Amino acid sequence: MNLYIVRHGIAIDREDPKCPSDPERYLTEVGLKKTKEVARGFATFADVPDIFLSSPYVRAMQTAEIFADVVKISKSKIEQTELLLPGAEPALLFRELSRKKTGSVICFGHAPQLDELIATAVGSKKDLTELRKAGVASLILSRVYPVAGILEWLMTPKALRKLAK
Fold first, then answer.
1. What is the pLDDT of residue 101?
2. Beta carbons of 119 and 126 less than 8 angstroms apart
3. pLDDT in tens for each of the 165 residues of the chain?
4. What residues have CB less than 8 Å from 136, skipping those under 6 apart?
């Protein structure tokens, strides 16, 4: 299985007086623009994933919707899962993924949980990555559960935006 991991784009700052509760935090105008450029860069070389999974938090769903628009997938195909919420246990997501008969999945979520997913997939007990906002990683899983895989690539948002131009 090819597993793409995407951290949500730039969201309203927690310190902003207008900031809603954490689940309702949304992408800023800059976050929306940069995330769309990142998605366009991703689409220049990555295969369109079969399944889109997202944290139910607003900023993650907005990021998933932007990617879906760019790769021309209906937003209704985005599945929400609490297994991508901050603090979720990585092994539970991999167990759920093992039930899906597919070649590729893209997941949208939050730091540091996504870095924990990557570490778990490659067999590390500690985080090896630090995904930036709208950063993307690609994992090749030789086994989904219990998980065994390799980190194929990790790209910064800046590199992906350059590919979009």
1. 86
2. yes
3. 999 999 999 999 999 999 999 999 999 999 999 999 999 999 999 999 999 999 999 999 999 999 999 999 999 999 999 999 999 999 999 999 999 989 999 999 999 999 999 999 999 999 999 999 999 999 999 999 999 999 999 999 999 999 998
4. 4, 5, 6, 7, 38, 42, 154, 155, 160
Residue owning tokens 């540091």: 112
User: Alpha-carbon distance 134 to 5, whole Å?
Assistant: 10
Contact 7, 25 (CB under 8 A): no
Q: How many CB atoms lie within 10 A of CB 69?
A: 13
CATH number at residue 90: 3.40.50.1240
> How far from the centroid of its chain's Cα atoms is residue 73's Cα?
16
Which structural domain range is residue 47 located in? 2-164
Exposed/middle/buried for residue 33 (C-beta within 10 Å: 0-12, 13-18, 19+): middle
Query: How many structural domains comprise the chain?
Result: 1
- From CA 143, how far away is CA 60, in angstroms rounded? 26
Six-digit token string for 4: 């793409």
67 and 39 Cβ atoms separated by less than 8 Å: yes
Coil, strand, or helix at residue 80?
strand
16's tokens? 């902003």
